[in-house]
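Internal ticket - ligand job 246, biotinyl-5-AMP:
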Amino acid sequence: MTELFTAHTLAARLSPRAVRYLPQTGSTNDDARAWLRARPPAGSVVIADEQTGGRGRLGRAWRTPAGAALAVSIILRPGVESLHQVGMIGALAVVSAARRAGLEDVGIKWPNDVLVNGRKAAGVLPEAEWNGDHPLGVVLGIGVNIRVDFSGTELESTAISLETAAGHSLNRLDILADLLQAVDDWSARVDVFDAWKSRLRTLGQTVTVTNLRGVAEAVDEQGALWLRTANGELHRIIAGDIALGR
Ligand code: BT5
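stdout (structure tokens):
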């Protein structure tokens, strides 16, 4: 069933947070980055029911069909020293919200994909907006599949929706409220890196990242992945999203 939000239901449930609701937009991250220039309070959020140009990392596309997912972009103002943790906070918040929804097999794939039953249920796209050397703020974009139907698409074997994993219907507004609360909670914590690392499924696995194949040996506090290739070389790979817009 397609169930759309309304500005009224969102404002009522998420008050006193500043909310911009769009039935359809290109990318909520673009909307939030434009809004950031007007200096809205931290925690302000853009929510869309459908994205026509949803973005992943490195120019990849993100699928958000109408009323079947969460597409949110939260405005945050971390200090420069914690900019690299924004993506971790996004992934940890999705893990918290998915667990609250009753899902058990929930983990993180480097850098910030949330896997449920081993498949991608959510993606995170943090983007900083700069004024010269000074960060105006960060937009934390989060896409969560609630009841997206991937059958017959190229994502059929890699993606999953929370309802499919749960085996019953879920309330999209409840998950949204839990997700935003979890972003606030994780933003206030000092153990973000340790929590993120402990939920990572990637360590010890053989993976391919940006054309390099090797064993994921470690991650560091900046969120970078240390990959050991077959010839014994160790490569440090950064997710690279946060500097976008600089
Ligand atoms: C991500 O990129 O996983 C970040 C996705 C962030 C989406 C949110 S929605 C709200 C905000 N507004 C935006 O425009 N973006 C953010 P990446 O790691 O590059 O993964 C992209 C890849 O995931 C694609 O190339 C597909 O293979 C796959 N994919 C696309 N849509 C998917 C979906 N709905 N579920 C699972 N996998 C998907």
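Auto-summary: Confidence is low (pLDDT under 50) at residues 241-246. Residues 27-29, 51, 54-58, 60, 62-64, 71-73, 113, 120, 123-125, 141-143, 145, 148, 155, 159 surround biotinyl-5-AMP (CB under 6 Å).
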